[in-house]
């Protein structure tokens, strides 16, 4: 089986349940608090591995207890961590997640993630049938390097442009598939959208770019451009949504795994959409990410 190479962040997620946000100067009591393994890179790597993919992760952690626990967890999930570096004197990244009803808000301290700088060693590991996946929680120059080396060896590339940075548009010539949510898609096109403008904007964008576009739309499912038209897969019904943290990462990670194993493009999108939905049924970014057996049982 071909391999998925993920370049991205590793965080420890501190997740707190709350009824709302305090204003400046106000103190509120929260509900439950939990600690989870996260970071968009770690999330996507675990999502791909859970579904049966062969996954290698390039990332950085701090020389602290959180870093040790993160590496131990990733290895237990079957993720190859030989490209993860330990940065002594730095702190492992931390994400503070505030769960409000069925949605969330997140503040990220990047820590060692912003010290990730070397990707040249990936050239020796790449096979031209592999996939390269990245997000934007590590330095943009490092992502640029990873894309360069991936395309140098004819590796297919997928970018999840989150958290959004406008400079990603300057890398589109090396991106085969991009998976923004609706807000990130607005960043790509440079203006806000009304609901009725979505399909028109996607078609216009696709006409001007070779990069394949897939927009994740939460409760409205997933839309993508294929054969000159916008196709939408509805959101999965009849599931209890407990936590949407990591749903987008689950989509991108499992999409990469399915494509790496040779699944047809549209089937891979549809199946990744199911995986993303299943991931919302438990608290924590990685906790609900489905295994292959759980996916088969649901389908």
Q: Fraction of residues in helices? A: 25-40%
What low-confidence regions span 5 or more consecutive residues with pLDDT below 50? none
- Large-scale geometry: globular
Order of strands in the sheet with the most strands? 5-4-1-8-9-10-11-12-13
CATH superfamily: Ribokinase
**Proportion of residues in extended strands:** 25-35%
Could you tell me the radius of gyration in angstroms? 18 Å
* Assigned CATH class: Alpha Beta
Structural category is alpha/beta
Report, as a whole number of angstroms, the end-to-end distance.
Answer: 23 Å
The CATH level-2 architecture is identified as 3-Layer(aba) Sandwich
How many domains in all? 1
Instruction: Let me know the average pLDDT.
Output: 91
Order of helices and strands: EEEHEHEEEHEHEEHHEEEHHH
């Amino acid at each position: 089986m071909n391999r998925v190479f993920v370049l991205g962040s590793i965080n420890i997620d501190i997740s707190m349940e709350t009824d709302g946000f305090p204003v400046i100067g106000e103190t509120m009591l929260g509900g439950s608090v939990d600690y989870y393994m996260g970071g968009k890179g770690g999330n996507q790597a675990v999502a791909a591995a859970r579904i049966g993919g062969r996954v290698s992760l390039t990332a950085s952690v701090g020389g602290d207890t959180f870093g040790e626990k993160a590496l131990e967890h990733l290895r237990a999930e079957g993720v190859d961590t030989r490209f993860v570096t330990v940065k002594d004197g730095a702190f492992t990244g931390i994400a503070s997640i505030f769960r409000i009803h069925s949605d969330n808000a997140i503040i990220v301290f990047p820590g060692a993630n912003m010290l990730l700088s070397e990707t040249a060693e990936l050239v020796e590991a790449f096979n031209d049938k592999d996939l390269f996946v990245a997000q934007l929680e590590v330095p943009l120059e490092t992502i640029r390097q990873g894309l360069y080396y991936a395309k140098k060896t004819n590796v297919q590339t997928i970018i999840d442009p989150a958290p959004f940075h406008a400079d990603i548009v300057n890398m589109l010539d090396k991106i085969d598939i991009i998976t923004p949510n609706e807000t990130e898609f607005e960043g790509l096109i440079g203006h806000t959208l009304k609901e009725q403008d979505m399909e028109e904007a996607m078609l216009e964008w696709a006409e001007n770019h070779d990069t394949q576009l897939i927009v994740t739309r939460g409760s409205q499912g997933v839309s993508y451009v294929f054969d000159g038209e916008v196709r939408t897969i509805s959101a999965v019904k009849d599931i209890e949504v407990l936590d949407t943290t990591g749903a987008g990462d689950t989509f991108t990670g499992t999409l990469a795994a399915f494509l790496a194993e040779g699944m047809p493009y549209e089937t891979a999108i549809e199946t990744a959409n199911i995986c993303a939905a299943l991931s919302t049924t438990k608290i924590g970014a990685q906790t609900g990410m489905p295994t292959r057996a759980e996916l088969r049982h649901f389908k």
